[in-house]
Amino acid sequence: MAILQAILPELVLGCAAAFFFGCSLFDVNKNMHRFAVGWAGAALLAAVVAMNGNAELLHGAYKVDSFSRFFALFITGAFLVAIIITLRLEDIDRQVRSDFYFFLTVSTFGLVLVTGATELLTLFIALEISSYPLYIATSYRKGLGFQFEATAKYLVFGVVSTALMIYGISYLYGALGSTFINDIVFALPSHLQDPLTLVGVIFFMAGLLYKLAAFPFHFWAPDVYSGAAAEVVAFAASLPKLAAVALFARIGGVFIDFEVLAPALALLAVLSMTAGNLMALTQTELKRLLAYSAVSHAGYILLGILAASKGGLNSALFYTAVYAVMSLAAFLIAVLMAEDGKNDIPLEDLSGLWQRAPLLAVVFTIALVSLAGLPPTAGFTGKLMLLTAAWKAGWFWTVVFGVLNSLLGLFVYLNIIRITLVADGNTGQKTLSCPPLLQSTAAVLGVCLLVFGVLPNGLLNMVEKALAALLYI
Amino acid sequence: MESILHLNTMSISVLSTIIFLPIGGALLLPLISDDRAAKLYSLLLTVVVMILSVPLYTRFDPGLSGFQFVEQRTWVESVGLSYLLGIDGISLPMILLTTLFGPIVVLCSWSYITKRVRAFMACLLLTQGIMVGVFAALDVMLFYFFFESLLVPMFLMIAVWGGPRRIYAAVKFVLYTLAGSIFLLLALIALSLKAHTFSYPVIMMLNLTPQFQFWLFLALLAAFAVKVPMFPVHTWLPAAHVEAPTAGSVILASILLKMGTYGLLRFNLALAPLASVDLAPIMVFFSIVAILYGGFLSLAQTDIKKLIAYSSVAHMGFATLGIFTLTLQGNQGAMLQMVNHGLTTGGLFLLAGMLYERSHSRELDVNAGLGRLMPAFGFFLGLFSLSSLAFPGTASFVGEFLILVGAFNLDWRVGAWAIPGALLAAAYMFRLFLRLTWDAKGNKSLARDLNFREWLSLAPLAILVMVFGFYPKPLLQIMDPALDRLIARLPIVEGSQIAAHMQTMVHSIFN
Predict the structure, then answer these.
(1) ∠ CA(A267), CA(A271), CA(A276), 5° rounding?
(2) Out of A369, A399, A456, whose CB is closest to B76?
(3) Helix (H/G/I), strand (E/B), else coil: B66
């Protein structure tokens, strides 16, 4: 029973996937949103119930511990919000609604598995389970074919990076004689000078960086973000990030001990931040801009990873959780603005939002302020922790670039705030009808950002508890 | 350490209340659907806050060293953050100034703001609470939290309700401020890594190496020099002042700028005393440049608000000059100057706003001679102009006099260079006053003398300007002990060393 309770989220998500598969087989496409919200809510509830679960399955290849349950909680929570956002789903054909939810559910299932996998091949399979459905979901969009370019890029980049990853895993197995993370952690210190291990590690890390959309593995992001339906992007922008950081924390942090790797990662962190912000400066389309903003935030998260062995992981985990909330809040607005089956959301469309939907405008502003990293939002608290952690670990120059980048970032987000709150809307714009469900979700996200910013204790304690399960810290 | 923290003994947590009452009030504002009700509600809240802040003065004991009305709670222990509030003789006048201006900025927006009134009132209330927080915070990260939280409401205040070039001005303001304060953030993180906490009383006890102090001083300076604003980084100020609505200009001039000098006193002087002494000559130099440059620019303006804005640069130059004479008189003068500049320039901006409401122009030419037709307006303008040029008997005189005493004590040449600044002030203020009051033109159709609401917003400032002009003791009394202790922390106060230092500096630059 204890085991069942521990893996309840996985079970619920598996059942949900089976349910939507059945619906798809029998061509049931009505009321799908309600079912999906129901299942996602059940998954979140299951994650709460399983919060203290502890179990080992598949001969130790899959482990349920406080670490994986922490991520299960946030992944299912983000899943619920991402599903709520799909209320309208006007960009996607009615006939494929059940398939659409099937793919999202399977992907979430895979992401939860990723956070629990403690063996590299299990991990690899879990990653593939989470990725493939998203490749397909990206192509689900009515329109003129731009989404297929997005899918192709996503797929090709994704497959290449996973290929790199499994190639790296083969090297690691060759060098260390095991694919279990625990064994690797113990074996690694004696292999720090071993070139074979290093090659394996580098390939493996490349795969991880792709998931995180860090520079220079970010080229897929802008096209995928702008090509896919906004609902899909909302999902793809937040949930896989959580899993990627889980991976970094569970295993990437171990590799930081390599002398060559840490400076390289520091460089990539700084380049990610800078390139992301610089590119975001010139964007005029909201989804594309958010893609570049994701790149720059990946850079910030890497700062925390850099300080992994010196207690910096809590900041990375904290920031990722916060980032998921910020990006969901931003995409919630993006989804509403993307109505009428338009291909993209020019920033100008946001003008006068304060008039058309005051609550959304306020929540959007909070999300942007948080992305810019100003107090009193969670974005600031997270950045403060990241910078402190990186400095403590001796990466002063990355900290300097970090704060300089917050200046660049401010310029990016201030511009959107200006358009949203300051500009008067054109008279031709219709009022934005926003269903109560979405309004209340937006309000909850906004409040979360403020609460995590001012009173981060609760979230921090959860993070600490999650990290306690990690072996190498 | 506890001995310098005197816990709040009153039945309510005064500081927390006056910080969070307006902030909470702003969050409830969307529930009010009527504009007029929103204004009354904001006025009521700010008046309540003002009344609540009175016990801070009456119960303040200047004799105690350290901080009073201290409130201490745990906040985020794992990061070293604590919720620590408290005031001393340096922050108390600033807080009182802030709460005094609360109702005044609401009153001056009464008819000036016509669109999105409730949102504007929300911004006013937010800034009100946050500004008190800045002056009351004793945890340096809490300070930064408040310091930066101001950006968004101020940005909106300028960008939404400002003049024609409001976006430019608002963006410039925010970028300048943040460009400075990212260095503040770095400095604070560096301090916390040394002290393992963000608590100011602990950080104050650190023994920092001269080299560390040097970089600390520069990083802190980057943030506070922008806020003051000191000479090369002052360009955001005229833009922001001119474009902001009256309330925004008043908040900027009367309170926001003081955060810069407050920061210099609280952080630069207190935490980096060695570096303060070493770098004082440079600071004095830039202060004098600001005094003269601001004065000359002010003399050339035809836009009333711009004229006052540049005069602010000059006046704040006096304040920084006073601080970096590193003498007691100089610092007393600087503190007085901060308060008096707040009262005086706030009053002048209120008057400029009133003119704008009548003539819809800020040009001297358009408004020329209006003062003659509006006697009450003329009276207030005269009073605040005299105070602005530090006429004996008005508040600013005492402050500037003390600053000049400090400057002459340091080196007679420093004083000599600052004197023309005082003359310039007379020139540009009299020019403004003359044009507005005695110019023959005067468009009668525009002249409407002050109404009751306008009287109500100007009278308290005018009374204080006159009272402090003749009797600055209530102010000096509360800040003297704090300044004494601050100066005592400096390694060498009078000594020949600093004078020699200054002399080489003076020689190399002025000769």
Answers:
(1) 155
(2) A456
(3) coil
The answer for residues whose C-beta is within 8 angstroms of residue B176's C-beta and 6 or more apart is B226, B233, B235, B236
Give the 3-state secondary structure of residue B490: coil
pLDDT value of position B1: 46
Residue numbers in chain B where pLDDT is lower than 50: 1, 495-496, 511
Q: Compute how many other C-beta atoms are within 10 angstroms of the C-beta atom of residue A171.
A: 20
B182/A380 touch (CB, cutoff 8 Å), yes or no: no
B193:A392 CB<8 A: yes
Q: Which residue of B has its CA nearest to A452?
A: B76
The mean pLDDT value of chain A amounts to: 88
Q: Are B420 and B292 in contact (CB under 8 A)?
A: yes
Question: Smallest Cα–Cα separation from A72: which of A116, A106, A36?
Answer: A116
Give the domain extent around B495.
Answer: 272-511
Note the pLDDT of residue B170. Answer: 92
Domain assignment present for residue B448? The answer is yes
Q: Residue B511 has what pLDDT?
A: 47
Interface of B with A in 132-161 (CB under 8 A): 141, 144-146, 148-149, 151-152, 155-156, 159-160
Q: Is the pLDDT of residue A427 over 60?
A: no
Predicted pLDDT of residue A469? 83
DSSP 8-state assignment for residue A426: P
Of A374, A422, A460, the CB nearest to B78: A460
DSSP A91-158: TS-GGGHHHHHHHHHHHHHHHHHHHHB-BHHHHHHHHHHHHHHHHHHHH---SSSHHHHHHHHHHHHH
For residue B481, the distance in angstroms to the closest alpha carbon of chain A comes to 34
In a domain, B324, yes or no: yes
- A-chain residues near B79 (CB < 8 A): 384-385, 388, 460
B positions 324-383 inside 8 Å of A (CB) = none
What's the CA gap between B320 and B225, in Å, rounded?
A: 9
pLDDT (0 to 100) of residue A257 = 75
Given a cut of 90, whether residue A424 has pLDDT beyond it is no
Q: How far apart are the C-alpha atoms of A72 and A101, rounded to whole Å?
A: 19
**Proportion of chain A above pLDDT 90, given as a percent:** 44
B182 in A contact zone (CB under 8 Å) = yes
Cβ–Cβ of A421/B160 closer than 8 Å? Answer: yes
Q: What is the DSSP letter of B67?
A: E
Q: Distance between CA A347 and CA A423 in Å, rounded?
A: 11
The ipTM assigned to this model is 0.90
B193 contacts A388? CB cut-off 8 A: yes
Q: Per-residue pLDDT for A456 more than 60? A: yes
Is B149 in contact with A456 (Cβ distance < 8 A)?
Answer: no
CB contact under 8 A, A407 and B78: no
The total number of structural domains that make up chain B = 1
Question: Are B152 and A376 within 8 A, CB to CB?
Answer: no
The pLDDT tens digits for A126-184 are: 999 999 999 998 888 877 677 788 888 899 988 988 899 999 999 999 988 888 888 88
Q: Is B114 on the interface with A (CB under 8 A)?
A: no
Q: What is the mean pLDDT of residues A114-119?
A: 90
Q: What is the pLDDT of residue B501?
A: 62
The pLDDT tens digits for B349-362 are 999 999 888 888 88
Q: How far is B311 from chain A (nearest CA, A)?
A: 29
Q: What strand order describes the sheet that includes B5-7?
A: B5-7, B67-76, B81-87
Q: Note whether residue B56 is domain-resident.
A: no
Report the number of secondary-structure helices (H) and strands (E) in chain A: 21, 2
Q: Residue B497's pLDDT is what?
A: 57
Helix axes B395-410, B328-359, angle to 10 degrees: 140
SS3 A422: helix
Q: What residues in A contact B193, CB-CB < 8 Å?
A: 388, 391-392
- Does A428 have pLDDT greater than 60? no
CB atoms within 10 A of CB A381: 30
Position B466 in a domain: yes
